[in-house]
User: What shape does this take?
Amino acid sequence: MVGVLLTTGRADAGILADAEPWNKRLVRTTVPKLPRPELDAVLVRPDGYTCWTSASHAPITDTLTTWFGAAS
Assistant: This one.
């Protein structure tokens, strides 16, 4: 089960650092822009649905734990 973390160059370094323990279960990709200009990061579940965005103000670690299990 692998998710995708899409980030732009504006992505908060904290988001990337927080997601690091899940690197074996994520593909991390930098993109020039996302469909909504206010976003700088999007987490996509393995089934293709978005499960977190940087605009959600929820910690990415909570969502990663929910969808990908405990950090390793």
Summary: Residues 20 and 40 are 17 Å apart (CA to CA). The domain at 3-68 is CATH 3.40.30.120 (Glutaredoxin).
